[in-house]
Amino acid sequence: MRPRVVAAASGAIALVVALGACTKNTGEGATVDTGRQQTGVIATDPKDSMGPAPAVEGAQPGGTFTIIRETPISHLDPQRTYSFAGLLAAPLFARFLTTFKDDGDGNLVLVGDLAETPGNNVNGDCKVWEFKIKDGVKFEDGRPVTAKEIAYGIARSFDPDLAGGPTYLQEWLADTPQYDTKWDFKANRTALPPGLTTPDDRTLRFEFARPRCDLPFAVSLPATAPLPPDKDTGVNLGNAPFSSGPYKVTRYQAGVEIVMERNEHWDAATDPVRHQYPDRFVWSFGPTPDAASNRVIADNGADQSALSWNYVPASLVARVAGDAALRSRTILSPTPSANQLVINNQRVTDLRVRQALNYAIDREGLVKVLGGQHVAAPMTTLMPPATIGYQAYDAYPAGPNGDLDKARELLGGQTPELVLGAADSSVEQQVATQIKGNLERAGFKITVRNIPDDAKLDEIKKKDNPWDLYLGSWAADWPSGASILPVLYDGRSIRAEGNSNQAYFNDPTINAEFDRVLALPPAEQGPEWAKLDERIMREQAPVVPLYVDVAYLVHGSKAGGIFVSSVFGYPSLVDAHVKP
Amino acid sequence: MLRFLVKRILSAVLTLFAVTVLTFLMFFALPRDPVTGMCPKNCNPERLERVRQELGLRDPLVSQYAGYMKGIVTGRDLGSAQGGRCDAPCLGWSYVNNEAVTDTMARVLPVTLSIVIPAAILWLLLGVGLGMLSALRRGTWLDRVAIGFSLAGASMQLYFVGAVLLLVFVYTLRWLPVPGYTSLFDDPVRWASGLVLAWVSLAFLFSAIYARLFRAQMLETLSEDFVRTARAKGLTRTRVYGRHALRAAITPVVTVAGLDVGAALGGTVITETTFGIRGLGRTAVDAVRAGDLPTIMATVLIAAVFVVLANVLVDLLYAAIDPRVRLG
């Protein structure tokens, strides 16, 4: 009998989703393609979750694929990984309960990775989930991966020593953000957290106090990587993670280099997304984005099969974009990182003022200041285009440069005085200057107050912060509205500090809508989030959506198979290969 | 001599103690919170506070300082969240690099030493050589070339010189590999070829100052009575310049070189950044950017050790070079 899975009966449920983007090489022209219709899917047929992954055209085994990056990866321990580099390096050496098939052309499919499917919603209420674990998945020492090692991996994420990773599973299982007070990992190493059980070696069961319909997405994060208890080296695991993926870490020099070589126990037949083309991956840390890009552009020796991880820096964008010979070696794609001019709704209580801000904004001017279309792409929605269920709309149509007359009309001759808090980084200072000029032409009086760059995030997370406006950004952990809208706009979560709802927006009607949509099966949520997105903006305008970050990457002439992850906005390495 | 050494070492220890106290106060007392860097985006304040307490960050500052110093001298137990037992000299645990700071320093220090020591030898040889040539051939085309060279070096910036050298020798002519660090003991050829551009850049810039300084000193020395006397006694020019004048003229150069080398060993940030090599300087800057306080503390401490050591060495060299200087 086919396992019952997340939503429906058909082989795969296509969701109406995002205006995605071409993430292929820009050989045909260096423009961001925002016209592609993206399809988001949660696979229901176990065949979709089995390997091998389709062969990459022209890819051959062999060679060393190098990734050059300025700063080290903060954690290789899957339970602690939360940086983009960590999230995209982890699939090379770890398997997760679920994962996304992402073809780089905008087609995103959630499939089982260690699990046979993306989960079985046992009672249909999202409170009890079961995952059947595949046969044939092995660790780097040849031991089979069972539900027990996956459960142990999740259990160790409760350890406060291992801070840094995502906390969804811990908080959901413990039903409290203070999860480590509810279950003490160190005192219960041989037990499992409340709600997590392994009825047998091939079954992993989650039982939650409340509906957790996003679980299939949440378990696509590396925190669900398996680990045998005897291989747990605590905080040192990040220096030598125990592999269940196609590569294993054979050399780790913190801050200098990581070498990953083939894991001979990895079985392609069990893996729906990964390949094992290069003999080894080398992560080389140190060069600045400028130096890394220059190296890759020069295309010498080993750098021919290298990728500069960081986006092409602003100082080189014009040169790279203007060099026709480099087109086949660059990738241009919008990312899911969305940026807003956040309005502090506790201070700016007049809806007309918030609407006027939305009409006034000059997105085209802003994108120019940021460095052009290779750096940013304008957006008018709360959710970025890469979100499942995304529908494009513009609640305050004002053209690319804003409608100053409409803004002035809404202000009715008043001159609202607003304080814009801006980080003292060079980029944000430039953006703040542009926004100040833009808004003052529409009739606002804007005072820019600088905030130390490294303190800004903490400061704007404080409920009683003294600014009316500030620049905010959000990159969701999975492309579902559930990881964006309730996180950023549910007023019931507002506390004294540490707020993700930095607009301090609190509307009981909207909060109730969050509850309603969150209780829907994941496959039905997408269109509902899109409707709610538009409703929030039309009725309340709590922020001014500005732009999504654009990934602009350059790689060597022999580096193949790279695309920008639709989920995280940085290079995915699962198809990477070295061209002969 | 022994008395001098003991006095200088005591003075050095006191200086280093003062540096540790000041650095500790400056960085650990500032409202920077290392735990925030460990926090994922949805971390909540209550949990952060618990982590702070578990890491001892809520202990009195004096207690934290005592623990830190004890770690340097005897080692200490940092707890399971920070890798457990940390042997002396324990410089703490980096929450950012997720490793003992001593390990980080052990890794990056050889890189900086490999950049600075050969570069210093090069810039001293070049600087003193050019200065000597310029002084002895004063007014000739050789002097003018040497002055021009030193003017060019003194007015350029390392990130420009480095970028030009990279463009020419690495990216265009492809004569050299992309700069990087390989251990001298693993592969001496790769070690040298990976660092030679950094040495040349540093030598070009630094030697300019030394050439000008040494030329001025040499000219002044050559006009001294003892030089005229030596020549009048029939000593050869080589012996007069190489033995008598050189020793007298080089003393200020040694002073400046001691300070320069000491400071450079504390971190050649711009050189390391230009050539994409991660030594002490880059590590220090990254630590500041990331708010990695234990690493900041260690880099400041190590830089101070180098400056203090360089000063002691300069004092000793004075006595060796100039017999008029007596230590005591």
Describe the fold and architecture:
- The complex is a heterodimer of chains A (580) and B (328).
- Chain A has 580 residues and is an alpha+beta fold.
- Chain A is 24% helix and 22% strand.
- Chain A is built from 15 helices and 23 strands.
- Chain A has helices at 84-93, 147-156, 168-174, 179-182, 215-218, 289-298, 314-322, 351-360, 363-370, 404-411, 426-441, 453-460, 485-489, 508-518, 522-540, and strands spanning 12-19, 37-43, 64-69, 98-102, 107-112, 120-121, 128-132, 196-200, 203-207, 247-253, 257-262, 280-285, 306-308, 330-343, 376-378, 417-423, 445-451, 469-474, 543-554, 559-560, 563-564, 571-572, 577-578.
- In chain A, helix 8 (351-360) runs antiparallel to helix 10 (404-411) and helix 9 packs antiparallel against helix 11 (426-441).
- Chain A starts with 11 loop residues before the first strand and ends with a strand.
- Chain B has two domains: 19-102, no CATH class; 108-327, MetI-like (MetI-like fold, Orthogonal Bundle), CATH 1.10.3720.10.
- Chain B has helices spanning 2-28, 34-38, 45-54, 61-74, 101-136, 141-155, 158-172, 188-222, 225-232, 237-265, 269-275, 280-290, 293-321; strands spanning 76-77, 85-86, 93-94, 99-100.
- Chain B has a two-stranded antiparallel sheet with strand order 1-2.
- The mean pLDDT of chain B is 85.
- The interface between A and B is large, with 46 and 48 residues.
- Any low-confidence stretches of chain B, pLDDT <50, length ≥5? none
| Major sheet of chain B | 2 strands, antiparallel
Structural class of chain A: alpha+beta
CATH secondary-structure class of the largest domain in chain B: Mainly Alpha
Secondary-structure class of chain B: mainly alpha
Strand content of chain B: under 5%
